[in-house]
Design a protein that fits this description.
Low-confidence stretches: none
Structural class: alpha+beta
CATH superfamily of the largest domain: Creatinase/methionine aminopeptidase superfamily
Number of strands: 18
Mean pLDDT: 96
Strand order of the largest sheet: 4-3-2-1-5-6
Shape: globular
Distance between the termini: 59 Å
Helix content: 25-40%
Order of helices and strands: HEHEEHEHEHEHHHEEEEEHHEEEEEEE
Largest sheet: 6 strands, mixed
Number of domains: 2
Length: 392
């Protein structure tokens, strides 16, 4: 008896459209079969978001087959049946005996499948950038008559421009993010433990907003409170907030793997003059960056507009101003930095990340998740760009 499908993030036609775009890229490169191994790209092409990429798995996309074949650990195969649009016979689980096996692993099952499918002499694409040298060597040694080509970032570039369905899901994620940030403003108080505040915010991200649950709680949840506001990527502690504390927050709601992160800064009591000055400069620079976002502009144009405006307010930002985002936190194909000449197109989405870590004990957080539109830019969050003051 076939297992029932679970609720799909997108209709089958959407996944087939994505696969068609990938196959078109494969044809241009002369690739007959592509082995997709990065979890984000597998999710993009199938809807699969379960956490199983810590062991070998691969999605086999062939020009001659409408649907790909997904090979993964046998105990994870039911998740693929529930989550993806793939037919049951397109999901193959390899045995547990290949886990922790020094001689053979799940990638050998993928090679076996290729040999049995009669493609051992064809051109095969691998996402080599994301594979170990040992795994690449395995494919080459066991498929000596095949031509192995590097297809790293090939799918990621396609993911850079979103469909309208993806944009809708990112808006849902943004509403959940906003709910979490509003909850933060309610629970951050003097005497409250950082851990307890984090628990309240995270539970909100799980419960969701507007009838849409958070389908995951992303690991990139950062709560950096005084005196650790000069850090960017640490978690909560057992310490309590106190009067005059500053709290830098960065997190996201999640819908079917899609994210819309947000950064905001809270001040318990009146903020210092230094904090207020950097807030004013960053907001002005953010608005300059947003005015620059439009089709035909480049990532570099956006970064330059931000940094030039911030400099007029007496501050510098050493790190980049953001990065492409969507399915999971980072799409490694475009960054909002001064040397990235990627041309903006409608439905590209970015985390305009303007966190600024100045000293070991002083930094500031502000961001927006944005969409390039035909006429300019859309920001997904509905929250004001304020320095949130907490007055118990």
């Amino acid at each position: 008896m076939a297992m029932p499908k679970g609720p799909q993030a997108f209709p089958r036609t959407e996944y087939l459209r994505r696969l068609s775009a990938v196959k078109s890229e494969m044809q241009q490169r002369g690739i007959d079969v592509l082995i997709v191994t990065t979890p984000q790209n597998i999710g993009y092409l199938t809807g699969y978001t379960a956490k199983s990429a810590y062991v070998p798995q691969g999605l086999i996309v062939s020009l001659k087959d409408e649907e790909p074949t997904f090979i993964l650990r046998r105990m994870d195969a039911p998740a693929a049946i529930y989550q993806t649009f793939l037919a049951h016979n397109q999901i193959i689980g390899y045995p547990e005996g290949l886990i922790g096996n020094l001689e053979r692993d799940g990638f050998d099952t993928i090679v076996d499948f290729l040999l049995d499918s009669g493609v051992a002499k064809r051109r095969i694409g691998l996402e080599e950038k994301f594979l170990t040298p040992q795994t690449i060597a395995k494919f080459k040694s066991r498929l000596p008559e095949a031509s192995i080509d590097d297809f790293s970032n090939g799918v990621s570039w396609i993911r850079l421009v979103k469909s309208d369905l993806e944009i809708a899901v990112m808006r849902e994620a943004a509403a959940i993010t906003d709910a979490g940030m509003r909850r933060a403003q309610e629970v951050v108080r003097p005497g409250v433990r950082e851990a307890d505040a984090a628990a309240e915010i995270i539970s909100t991200l799980a419960r969701g907003a507007n009838g849409k649950v958070g389908t995951d709680v992303h690991h990139s949840f950062f709560l950096c409170a005084s005196p650790r506001t000069g850090t960017c990527h640490i978690k909560w502690t057992e310490e309590t907030f106190r009067e005059s504390s500053q709290v830098n927050l960065e997190f996201t709601g999640v819908r079917h793997g899609y994210v819309s992160p947000l950064m905001r800064t809270l001040s318990i009591g009146k903020p210092s003059d230094r904090l207020r000055r950097i807030h004013e400069g960053e907001v002005a620079a953010l608005e300059a960056a947003l005015l620059t976002v439009k089709p035909g502009a480049t990532c570099a144009d956006v970064a330059t507009a931000f940094k030039n405006t911030l400099r007029k307010h007496g501050f510098e930002k050493e790190s980049r101003c953001g990065y492409a985002i969507g399915l999971d936190w980072l799409e490694p194909t475009a960054s909002l930095k001064e040397d990235d000449r990627t041309i903006l197109q409608p439905n590209m989405t970015f985390h305009l990340m303007l966190g600024n870590w100045i000293d070991e004990d002083f930094g500031y957080s502000l961001s927006e998740t944005i969409r390039v539109t035909k006429g300019g830019v859309e920001t997904f969050s509905k929250l004001p760009r304020e320095l949130f003051e907490i007055h118990p």
